[in-house]
Specification:
Blueprint (H helix, E strand, L loop, with lengths): L2 H17 L5 H35 L72 E5 L7 E5 L4 E6 L7 E2 L5 E6 L2 E6 L5 E6 L9 E2 L5 E5 L3 E5 L5 E3 L10 E2 L6 E2 L17 E7 L5 E6 L4 E6 L5 E6 L8 E6 L1
Antiparallel strand pairs: 1-2, 1-18, 2-3, 4-5, 5-6, 6-7, 8-9, 9-10, 10-11, 12-13, 14-15, 15-16, 16-17
Length: 325
């Protein structure tokens, strides 16, 4: 290139430089960085939405129930949707993420039932004593009184008894001898009936059979009187009347008691025993006394204490005669 051509080139470049404005490269770089950041944010948000949609649609393919697994092990996943079955629908459980396995918690086992004492809890209420309790005043020709525990009433059912008395199992009648005859008296209306003549009871009161239709009496030899007909059946001479009591089924008199009261040391009672009577069913009513009161204790046929209740104060000086149901 000639010197003339070089001069023309310098002059052209000089004119071009005069027309070009200066550029701020720092400002251009900032704007470009912001455009790139916006594009990346848009792309990232779109990817997140697509990932969430894919995850949601994938949950539909997971099994409805996660089987129990040991701690730290991942539950197995079914490769496809669970197939419908013809059996009953199973209980559904919330899905636990395989990346955060949960330990299976067993339902609390019911505590074993406590063994309960099969024995009855004794009552302390006199009103809970069924039937009636009979007493007699001390001395000759005593009055016979009847206690009704339900309402605590005491009434005289026989005044000035001429001889020892025997109360029927149901408490409706009293047997005794008067003027050489066996007399049966109704405890409700007071009506007395001569059942059999030629009967005396000096040592032992008349003893009723459990069925209430016969009476064991003391003649010159022991005898059984039929209450309905008045017929007298004598017993063998070698039986002692004082030891005779009826058999459990009421068929024949026996030389021993149906139930022998237990020694006081083995009885579940407190106080001094001052009376005890047995029923045909094998129950035992015991009467005790302390410094300030008298009590009745009912012991069942299974030797369990059924009741322990205070007597009405007015009965303290009387003697226990019988207990009927």
């Amino acid at each position: 290139m000639t010197s003339e051509q070089h001069g023309d080139l310098r002059e052209s470049l000089h004119e071009l430089a005069g027309t070009v404005e200066p550029a701020d490269l720092y400002d251009r770089a900032i704007r470009r960085s912001r455009r790139i950041a916006r594009r990346e944010a848009t792309v990232g948000g779109t990817a997140a939405v697509l990932a969430l949609a894919a995850l949601t649609s994938g949950l539909w393919w997971l099994p409805a129930r996660v089987t129990d697994a040991p701690s730290g092990a991942l539950p197995a996943l079914s490769p496809g949707p669970a197939q419908p079955t013809s059996g009953p629908a199973k209980e559904s459980h919330a899905y636990a993420s395989p990346y955060h396995p949960t330990r299976s918690v067993a339902s609390p086992r019911p505590s074993p039932s406590r063994s309960r004492d099969a024995r009855r809890i004794p009552s302390s209420a006199l009103a809970d004593l069924p039937g009636h309790v009979f007493y007699e005043r001390p001395g000759d020709n005593p009055d016979v009184l009847r206690l009704s525990p339900g309402d605590r009433t005491v009434e005289t059912v026989l005044s000035d008894a001429p001889s020892p008395v025997g109360v029927s199992p149901d408490g409706d009648k009293i047997a005794y001898t008067d003027d050489g005859a066996l007399v049966v008296r109704d405890t409700e209306d007071g009506r007395a009936e001569r059942v059999a003549d030629g009967v005396t009871t000096t040592d032992q009161p008349p003893v009723w059979s459990p069925t209430g239709d016969r009476v064991l009496v003391d003649l010159d030899t022991p005898a059984v009187v039929d209450v309905g007909s008045g017929a007298i059946t004598r017993l063998p001479d070698d039986l002692e009347t004082k030891s005779l009591h009826w058999s459990a089924n009421g068929s024949t008199p026996e030389p021993t008691m149906t139930r022998t009261p237990a020694p006081q040391a083995t009885l579940p009672v407190r106080g001094t025993v001052i009376g005890e009577v047995a029923t045909p069913d094998g129950e035992l009513l015991i009467r005790t006394v302390t410094a300030d009161r008298t009590r009745l204790w009912l012991i069942g046929a299974d030797n369990t204490l059924v009741l322990a209740a205070d007597e009405p104060p007015g009965l303290r000086d009387l003697n226990l005669l019988a207990y009927t149901r």
